[in-house]
Specification:
By secondary structure, the protein is of the alpha/beta class. A six-stranded parallel beta sheet has the order 3-2-1-11-12-7, sandwiched between helices. Strands 17-16-15-18-21 form a five-stranded antiparallel beta sheet. A four-stranded antiparallel beta sheet has the order 5-4-6-8, with helices on one face. Helix 1 (19-37) links the parallel strand 1 (3-12) and strand 2. The radius of gyration is 29 Å and the shape is elongated. The two termini are 57 Å apart. Mean pLDDT is 92; it is low at 515-541. The structure holds 5'-O-[(L-methionyl)-sulphamoyl]adenosine.
Length: 651
């Protein structure tokens, strides 16, 4: 059994939780759930960072003690995690007495190595970052993140970090995936190559911190205190939990605090004679409707509000699906609603409804015998491939890839329903035993696919996936990842609750003034506009005549739109995922966004020019073109009846 330990940063208690905090916690909780479903022993820790000048100053402003302030601001984090189904094994607070004891132990270990010496600190300090900066690092007289700095002169203990530069570099060279994504490891390697400086690790000008052992008037630098939480939460060196989980840890953090984690923390551990963490993963930052979030702008995304309105599961799904973990992301309520209506309601929810509806109609809600159906080969093969893709994606913390892989099964399952036409089998089964047997097989395969999807999504949509598995009456022993390797494990004869609430009700798109407006369209190059106008004034001649062999070159096919979202970089374009009867769904960028919202087109059967040479449209490859009439807001997709299967030739 693999042992794994996941941590989030501990959050400062000077602010209420926002989407940035929720993001790391949701991602960490998802990993924890996933590896538990895989049978691993997993520990998850989060908490609050409660010492330092920043907190002391915030408390002073409200006229309460720093501890009262910390109590007041730590609680909302716990409450939010409860609400978002984030379930840590340990919520640590740096004001906990057992944490403080471990910090002092680490200090003494470093001191025993001769790595701590008394000196005088003179330089720039930013309270906002709780960090020291050299003159060169300042940007327009402020810290690189824009916080005020002040000149500090005080006696201070220093950590001989310079001693560990070579060892750290050697470690980075032999552990190429220590910091992920890889670009961040390169950043750290270049930084360490420049040589490490000793750092100041105590302060005397305020008192809200852990006192330096045996040194009056000094408190331990807040980052030494905070980083130690990762081992103090295990009881510290030598404790049972520590022996089990350290150093099998992945620290999940935001990209802004990578230097503390990938340089300071390993050096502290080396000095204390302790093993270094296995991995550090730095994720990107969220913006809101294309803008940096800030309290002054009042555009900070409040997870309570969003998850309260749409549900904690879909909020989790959105943040993990929308961007690759490591890249920056843009939150928009419209984008969230698009995913709810598209991926969840029309995709996952619709497959669930269809299947249960048919099971109720044709088999009284009882899962029939599996039987043979060669038409199911593609579905089974896709499921087997996704098993592998999923575990690889999760090992890479590529949540968006994992979800895309899962959703590819939904697309294939939808196609399986359409191509099996259970409604026709049902018509014939009274007189045709083969049709009866086939209908059994189709319904069984769909229920089994839903069970597997339910298990796979337990980590990403904990409540919804549980509700789905409960409705299917899936026993506990079939709710783990190992059981999904065994297509056919679901027991025939199981009675399913075919009636119940919709898993993913559709939501209304927020009105224009509720959601922040979309980014303005990139201005079209002027000469082209003029050209277009000129052309309109003078009717264009009809295209030249072609003969049939020219027409026959076109591969026109029926395609079904299975997912749709806005193109991230082009207002007039929707990025569509269509089933065109190929082994894999394809991506089409279609200029219909002025006329259709993403959720309006999902489920439509349209006509695709399938052999148009692939083309990159504003960074996204498009594999074909959909036929439409009109232009701009009056664009209308050419559609065909839904009973024409995807892939059917149009001529
Ligand atoms: N207390 C330190 C961490 C100590 S860990 C030993 C701290 N706290 S914080 O509350 O300021 O930030 C916590 C996390 O939130 C950081 O990982 C930071 O990257 C993340 N985020 C803050 N704003 C964010 C976004 N807008 N988007 C994504 N994450 C961001 O730093």
């Amino acid at each position: 059994m693999t042992v794994r330990y996941f941590t989030t940063p501990i959050y400062y208690v000077n602010d209420v939780p926002h989407i940035g905090h929720a993001y790391t916690s949701l991602a960490t909780d998802t990993l924890t759930r996933w590896y538990r479903l895989c049978g691993d022993e997993v520990r998850f820790q989060t908490g609050t960072d409660e010492h330092g000048l920043k907190i002391e100053q915030a408390a002073r402003k409200t006229g309460i003690s720093p501890k009262e302030h910390a109590d007041r601001y730590s609680a909302p984090f716990r409450k939010l995690w409860d609400f978002l189904d984030v379930v840590p094994d340990k919520f640590i607070r740096t004001t906990d007495a057992d944490h403080e004891a471990v910090v002092c132990d680490i200090w003494r270990r470093m001191e025993a190595q001769g790595d701590i010496y008394l000196g005088k600190y003179e330089g720039w300090y930013s309270v906002g970052d709780e960090a020291y900066f050299t003159e060169d690092e300042l940007v327009d007289g402020k810290s690189p993140s824009g916080h005020e700095v002040s000149w500090v002169v005080e006696p201070s203990y220093f950590f001989r970090m310079s001693k560990y530069g070579d060892r750290l570099l050697e470690f980075l060279n032999t552990h190429p995936d220590f910091v992920r994504p890889a670009s961040r490891q390169n950043e750290i390697v270049s930084f360490v190559k420049q040589g490490l400086q000793d750092i100041s690790i105590s302060r005397t000008t305020f008192s809200w911190g852990i006192p330096v052992p045996d040194a009056d008037g000094h408190v331990i630098y807040v980052w030494v205190d905070a980083l130690t939480n990762y081992i103090s939460g295990l009881g510290g060196p030598g404790a049972e939990l520590y022996n089990k989980f350290w150093p099998h840890v992945t620290h999940l953090i935001g990209k802004d605090i990578i230097r503390f984690h990938a340089v300071y923390w390993p050096c502290i551990l080396m000095s204390a004679g302790l093993p270094l963490p296995e991995h550090i993963f730095a994720h990107g930052w969220w913006r809101h409707d294309g803008e940096k979030m800030s309290k002054t702008k009042g555009n900070v995304v409040d997870p309570w509000k969003i998850a309260g309105k749409y549900g904690p599961d879909v909020f989790r799904y959105f943040v993990l699906r929308e961007v690759s973990f490591g890249a920056d992301g843009d939150f928009s309520e419209k984008g969230l609603c698009g995913r709810i209506n598209g991926d969840l309601a029309n995709g996952y929810g619709n497959l669930f409804n269809r299947t249960l509806g048919m099971l109720a109609r044709y088999r009284n809600g009882v899962v029939p015998n599996p039987g043979e159906d060669e038409n199911a080969a593609e579905l089974k093969q896709r499921i087997a491939e996704v098993q592998r893709e999923l575990s690889q994606a999760m090992d890479e913390l590529a949540f968006h890839k994992a979800l895309a892989a899962i959703w590819s099964v939904i697309a294939v399952a939808d196609k399986y329903v359409d191509s099996s036409a259970p409604w026709t089998l049902a018509k014939n089964e009274k007189t045709d035993a083969a049709a009866r047997q086939k209908l059994d097989a189709v319904l069984y395969n769909l229920c089994e696919t839903l069970r597997i999807l339910g298990v796979w999504t337990l980590a990403f949509l904990p409540r919804k996936a549980k509700a789905l598995l409960d409705r299917l009456n899936v026993p506990e022993d079939l709710r783990n990842v190992a059981s999904t390797l065994n297509f056919g494990a679901f027991k025939a004869g199981t009675t399913v609750q075919t009636e119940g609430e919709a898993l993913f009700p559709r939501v209304e798109m927020p009105a224009e003034n509720e959601a922040t407006p979309a980014a303005p369209a990139a201005p079209a190059p002027a000469p082209k506009k003029a050209e277009k106008k000129a052309k309109k004034a003078e009717p264009e001649p009809p295209p030249a005549e072609i003969d049939f062999s020219d027409f026959a070159k076109l591969d026109l096919r029926v395609a079904k739109i299975i997912a749709a979202e806005r193109h991230p970089d082009a207002d007039r374009i929707l990025k569509l995922t269509v089933d065109a009867g190929d082994p894999e769904p394809r991506t089409i960028c279609s200029g219909i966004a002025e006329a259709y919202a993403p959720e309006d087109v999902v489920g439509r059967s349209v006509i695709l020019v399938a052999n148009l040479a692939p083309r990159k449209i504003r960074g996204i490859m498009s594999y074909g073109m959909l036929l439409c009439g009109g232009e701009g807001k009056t664009t209308t997709l050419a559609t065909v009846p839904a009973d024409l299967k995807p892939g059917t030739r149009v001529s």
